[in-house]
Amino acid sequence: MRVDLFDFDLPRDRIADRPVEPRDAARLLCVGESCALTDRHVRDLPDLLDPGDLVVLNDTRVIPARLFGRVGAGTMELMLHRRTADDTWEAFARPARKLRPGVRVDLADDGFQAECVAKGEGGGQVTVRFDRGGMALIQALEVHGHVPLPPYIKRPDDARDRADYQTVYARADGAVAAPTAGLHLTERLFAALDARGIGRATVTLHVGAGTFLPVKTDDTEDHVMHREDGVVTATAARAVNETRARGGRVVAVGTTALRLLESAADTNGTLRPFQGGTTLFITPGYRFRVVDRLLTNFHLPRSTLFMLVSAFAGLDTMSAAYAHAIASGYRFYSYGDASLLDRAT
What we know:
Blueprint: E1 27-32, E2 36-41, H1 45-48, E3 54-58, E4 60-62, E5 66-71, E6 74-85, E7 88-94, E8 104-106, E9 113-119, E10 125-130, H2 134-144, H3 159-164, E11 172-175, H4 187-195, E12 199-205, E13 228-232, H5 234-245, E14 250-253, H6 255-264, E15 274-278, E16 293-297, H7 304-313, H8 315-327, E17 338-342
């Protein structure tokens, strides 16, 4: 499909710089057959779902993945985006011309270092090996790294972002971008879901920085997705399959949870335990196998995420929904408001 079909004009003042407080006070646009085009709030979610539905959460935890260091007398920025070993990450480097295999980046005065072990083909992509791995590396990132705020948030990260850019249920270290739909959820909201008889399951997809990369091709067929790694446990698969068998709806919280569920499902829609990578690129025409409803934020023009929601609810439907959101003052992107989408039939 032509990429320009997914373009729209977004005023700069619609891009959220900070989240609302409390989290579940964010606005929620309901889109689809069950709630037409209706303005609500995230705190209303329990009333918009039915007893027996299952909410599926991505429990990945964002690490401070933006690093600043030195190569000789010059400065260097590394933006980690995918872990390939305990001590090794693929990253975007700026300026990449300073790095070649064997060159070290000094990241802190306490000896924290990374060595370039490979260079990619364009885009500043490199592979770096750190001088430590596992929890020791995570601890060093917590001390020396910065919150990897998306490029459309035009300010440095600060102490508040350490909490704001993390879901309250984050558990598994490894993401370099937040599963942003989940940023709206609170313990109070979970209690209300429980009281209404709505189930919960967790999966893990470590979101990479590639989620923010623009689609630079003219046709979706020519775009290549970055790999992201995830896990669907047997417990999660069983919860999803049992929900579908009794007629309940599977509600994915975020496009990351949706992509992982769809990647792990067989052609009949049965979810299997899964551990590995996915490069699934969902565009209109995709046949959804598992997910019935989607809670998601508002996405960038011409992005793979806007293409995904257009595949899920229909391009004309989402174009109208986004026009309504812009006219009604909804806040966009990672710290913005949310939408609840019905799958088009």
